[in-house]
Amino acid sequence: MSLTSNINKGMYILFKGEPHVVLERQMTSQGRVSAFKKTKLKSLVTGRVLDQTFKSTDKVEEIDVETKSMQYIYVDGNEAYFMDPATFEQIPVTLDLIAGGTSYLHPDAKYVMMFYDGSPLAVNLPPSITLEITKTTGAVKGNTATGATKNATVETGYQLQVPLFISEGDKVSINTSTGEYTEKAN
């Protein structure tokens, strides 16, 4: 246990029985009243962000969260399987822990997985992923005034809007935080 005055941004703590990461912290002092620390915590289990104020005399438990680079292998039911490239160990992860579910899972991409007490907590997606267009509609003649787009489906089944010049078989980069097309990949 350490005092809350030692809390820093990026620190992993156990709060109300759940692992959290400290997103923001601000030390505040008001005259004779003891100092307190305002924090913004993100639950590594639910992903919920909450504001929490700690007194300077409160104690929190700092925890060790292990991160590993993993490779996606396949999905079976409600679980995605990842492999540790160093040990070849396969680890099942429920799709609830993956932002976007199966939309951004591809064997060529690398994913960072966080573990606490040997159990997977979350899967961090790469900032962007390159996927192949498997289905798209044709362009409508005369619909090219400014930034016209059309529907497209990529190999994972995810649907998005792409520019009119994109066709089936093209590879595109997709921003995994917004789900939007970013560029045509080579």
Main beta sheet: strand number and arrangement? 6 strands, antiparallel
* Shape field: elongated
Which structural class should the secondary elements be placed in? Answer: mainly beta
Order of helices and strands: EEEEEEEEEEEEEEEE
Counted beta strands:
16
The unreliable regions are none
Number of domains: 3
Q: What portion of the residues fall into strands of 2 or more residues?
A: over 45%
Order of strands across the main sheet: 1-6-2-3-4-5
Mean pLDDT: 86
Which value, in Å, is the CA radius of gyration? 22 Å
CATH class bucket of the largest domain: Mainly Beta
User: Helical content, roughly?
Assistant: under 10%
What is the CATH topology assignment of the largest domain? SH3 type barrels
Report how far apart the termini are.
51 Å
Return the CATH architecture of the largest domain.
Roll
Number of helices: 0
Descriptive key words:
single chain, about 190 residues, mainly beta, SH3 type barrels, OB fold (Dihydrolipoamide Acetyltransferase, E2P), 3 domains, six-stranded antiparallel β-sheet, five-stranded antiparallel β-sheet
Give a brief description.
The chain is an all-beta fold and 186 residues long. It has strands spanning 2-3, 12-15, 18-30, 33-43, 49-55, 59-62, 66-76, 79-83, 90-94, 110-116, 119-124, 128-136, 149-154, 159-163, 171-175, 181-185.
Q: Can you walk me through this structure?
A:
- The chain is elongated.
- A hairpin with a 6-residue loop joins strand 8 and strand 9 (90-94).
- With 186 residues, it is an all-beta fold.
- The protein has strands spanning 2-3, 12-15, 18-30, 33-43, 49-55, 59-62, 66-76, 79-83, 90-94, 110-116, 119-124, 128-136, 149-154, 159-163, 171-175, 181-185.
- The chain folds into three domains: 2-62, Roll (SH3 type barrels), CATH 2.30.30.30; 66-126, Nucleic acid-binding proteins (OB fold (Dihydrolipoamide Acetyltransferase, E2P)); 129-185, Nucleic acid-binding proteins (OB fold (Dihydrolipoamide Acetyltransferase, E2P), Beta Barrel), CATH 2.40.50.140.
